[in-house]
Amino acid sequence: MRFHRLYFIIHFVFYFLPDFSHGQSLQKYEFITYKMGTSFRLVFYAKDSLKANLVAEKAFLRINDLNEKLSDYNNESELNKLSRTSGSNVFVPVSDDLWKVISISLEASKKSDGAFDITAGTYVKLWRRAKRKNQLPVQEELDNAKESVGYKKILLDEQTQSVKLTAPNMKLDLGGIAKGYTLDEILKILQSEGVKSALIDGGGDILLGDSPPDSEGWKVSIAKDSSSILNKTLVLSNISIASSGDLYNFIEINDVRYSHIVNPKTGLGLTNQITSTIIAKDGITADYLASTLCVMGIKEGLKLAKRQKIPAIIQEKRGNNTITCQSRQLKSIIN
Q1: 103-139 residue pLDDT tens
Q2: CATH number of the domain that residue 105 is part of
Q3: Which of 114, 120, 150, 112 is nearest to 301 (CA)?
């Protein structure tokens, strides 16, 4: 599970309050680690450095634990072991974490009509090779990979908390959702240790806990490169923000620009230059919706955001013009 978070048309800038709260003995601490192919930065308030270090250590151990379960890069991860049972007609018991992520992923697939699909791992593998070689997969490879793609090929048995992958050669890829789940789990660790005021940054995806001491919230500036339409400073807490797009993470093959985001219905990177930003109640929702809306495009993506009552902004470059659309929920926050 290697995540590459891009900073593109939407940028997040956080303005932290003074290190000491007024009238409380809490200090601000910051820790950073590199796991899952990305950085995790923790900013939180605690009474002393001993407590802060203990909390950070527990949070980082939880990240390691989740990497062992959800990684598609670690050959011995629980996820990859499950993938290797595909086509065996066997229900495989899985951990609570993998069960939760797969269950939510399937709900996301249903809501998005397959625009989000964790079974696209065979496509993703082909696309990673295409990027390395600067050469598109041949149609025969895509056709073969397609046989193992489709979220309906995953069956769940709730009574035994087991999963069956019905097609041979399936490869699950949680890269579009596991980081958000990890952010949520880190916040749970902090909260269980009595740390309520926290900001967690996972490679650009943000999860906010309670407000900093003596503050109404974390001050977040959302700015757009070419216009002042979104130059707003928001005061937020207990919410998540995630972005996806191809401003920097793309490749050109035969004079066509392809995104790193793979369309699970074609097996190729997106060719429309599109970005999205999501504000959601938790990290896992913001994470999967950010890439999903890019796959769906402006029209259908905004429909999904509206159905789920999610603040969202989608931007797409068409020629020399950039089209910017916001959901009603985002407009209410900004205005």
Answers
A1: 999 999 999 999 999 999 999 999 999 989 999 999 9
A2: 1.10.3980.10
A3: 112
Is 132 a domain residue? Answer: yes
Measured CA to CA in angstroms, residue 129 lies from 58, 196, 260 at distances of 36, 43, 12
- The number of distinct structural domains making up the chain is 1
* Alpha carbon distance 210, 199 (integer Å): 9
Instruction: Give residue 127's domain range.
Output: 78-165
Span of 49-63, 216-230, 305-319 with lowest mean pLDDT: 216-230
pLDDT at position 248 is 66
Is the Cα torsion angle 137, 74, 153, 105 positive or negative in sign?
negative
1 falls within a domain: no
Mean pLDDT of the chain: 89
For residue 107, being part of any structural domain is answered with: yes
d(C-alpha 335, C-alpha 19), whole Å: 30
Residue 21, pLDDT above cutoff 60: no
**Residue 138: inside a domain:** yes
Sheet bearing 218-224, strands edge to edge:
10-15, 218-224, 227-236
Q: Are 38 and 223 in contact (CB under 8 A)?
A: no
